[in-house]
Amino acid sequence: MASSILLQRAWTLLALIVGLVFAPAAGAIAADATLTLNVGGVERTAYLHAPDRIDPARRYPLVIGFHGGAGNAEGYIENSQLFAKGEAAGFIVVCPQGTPIPIAGDHRVWNSGPEYERSSHGTDDVAFTRLIIDQVSRMYAIDPKRVFVTGFSNGGQMAYRLALELPDRIAAIAPMSGGRLAGDERPARPVPVMHFHGAADTVYPLGGGLGPNSIGRTPHASIDEVIDEWRQFDGADPTSTIEPHDGWEVHRHAGAAPVLLVLVLGMGHQIAGGRDDRLPGQAMRDQPDAIAMALQFFNGHPMP
Asked: Cα separation of 195 and 266, whole Å?
């Protein structure tokens, strides 16, 4: 009987030790979540990705990625690999869904300015972004000085709009293959910019206007105009230095809030270094990894 009791106690102790060793770390939280937010009476959706293990002793940077016009968040997550690359770089990532448009399938747009006011039904995507930041900040310890925005095409235009209208919440932006001019708006503070664009883009031509594959009838501003406008907003050097690479180059306007153009030679309308089955392997190798570069840029430019 005594030996049986001793054996039972030994197994209990062993179970306790195993439980302590393999128990989930404090602060563990689901890595993926779907956020549903009410914006002016309309339910909006955003997809969130975070590391499996969250360190309760640190504050995390947040990056919000906006899909392109006539795209959707799932496709953007797949093509950009923002979830995987963001986690590897230590970011919490959110990819929201735009407003549906009447085309067969799941196609959506952002109200990035007057050009998309009608197709987006005047949706307040600036308010949506503000609510995303607030909600994620309640879920995780987000560093308010390290909230960043990137986006592709119409999503890149949205990044510029947010830099203008939410400079108190957005530390820096990395638009890709899409730009817009500020019009009468001005940012309340300098916002660092790293813009990526393909020299052979036929949807949003580098020189502006309308390309053979442009969507809509509103001519685009040239990327030179967009970069020069933000260079002035940010007080960056009017003269750029050019860093040549194999197949691409970086035009850098230095300053406390720098403005950079990463020009990818021969590239069309796409995310540089992203997944695109239409491209041969060599073309992919000649491109920079835009998402990885953007995350590195963000790490170096928290809000003052």
From this structure: 16
How far, in Å, CA of 273 to CA of 239, rounded?
28
280, exposed or middle or buried, with CB in 10 Å at 0-12, 13-18, 19+?
A: exposed
Among 150, 102, 172, 161, which Cα is nearest to 289's? 150
Rg (CA), the chain: 22
Specify the pTM.
0.89
Using CA atoms, how far apart are residues 33 and 75, in angstroms rounded to an integer? 17
- For 297, the enclosing helix (H) or strand (E) is helix 290-299
Cα gap 107→103, rounded to integer Å: 7
What interhelical angle do 223-233 and 154-165 show, nearest 10?
Answer: 20
| Burial track 62-94 (b if 16+ CB lie within 10 A, e otherwise) | bbbbbbbbbbbbebbbebbbbbebbbebebbbb
The tokens for 288 are 């920079």
Write the pLDDT tens digit of every residue in 48-90: 999 989 999 999 999 999 999 999 999 999 999 999 999 999 9
- Matching residue, tokens 């920079």: 288
Question: What structural domains does the chain harbor?
Answer: 32-299 (3.40.50.1820)
Phi/psi at 240 (5° precision): -95, 150
State the helix-helix crossing angle for 154-165 and 125-139, rounded to 10 degrees.
80
